[in-house]
Amino acid sequence: MASATFGNLAAFFRSLVYRGAITLADALVPRGGYTLRKDIAYGAGERQMLDIYVPDGLTAPAPVLLFFHGGSWQFGDKSQYRALGQAFASKGIVTGVANYTLFPPQGFPRFIEDGALAFRYMRDHARDFGGDPKRIFLCGHSAGAYIAAMLGVNGNYLRALGADPSQICGVIGISGPYDFLPIVDPVLIELFGGANVPETQPVHFVDGKRAPMLLAHGRDDTTVGAGNSKRLAQKLQSFGSEVVVRYYHRTGHIGILLSLAPGFRKRTTLYQDMLAFIGKYGPPSP
Fold this sequence. Notes:
- The chain is 35% helix and 20% strand.
- It is α/β, with parallel strands linked by helices.
- Helix 3 crosses helix 4.
């Protein structure tokens, strides 16, 4: 019991740092240039909700970015990501930020199943927001990057909903855990149903070519080691997948995400790297 309590306390203190950084970024975000459509249900669950940032002045179907927030699968909320929504809506990209079911009460694989539902919703309704259903990119930070990557490598979650992994234009993982066995945190052991379950690891499902991926990581990340991105990239490349890997010096787990916000974008090239990736793999249809 003491160990479990310590795990929950550690997650709580990480959440305070995370929220503080996101609140600071949010205060600098312009409120113009996009329309924010809040609390759109993609399922019947309490947290199966999306905020969608629709760029002003769209004249043709736009690429779509669907983002999953971080927070150790235990905390976080879409309302904290206006900086990300504005960053990409300002470039003509329809941007959805998704909530998903947290632990407790639900652990693995519920949050991945929620991610699949959110993808299907965006595919089916992209045109309602000016988006192109053939140009949907999945993205996430930390725990959210895990969800995006798992949907990209394990097609069973999408196929169960009548969707198809080939409908993913690309995956962008920011500071994601993709290969992290054995698990030692008692809370995460409970969340994932064991300390050493291969089926919980995205790298386990790479057995062929997958959608293009951009894997971004801070060199100074002490929460999720950059080796996670390196190992997933190597596995994907061994099967012929197209992978872009970016490591940023003097950048940690929170700072990498903060570098997407106005006033902080010179800290890394993540913003430019993401825009270049979306431009390369999601050009307009002829």
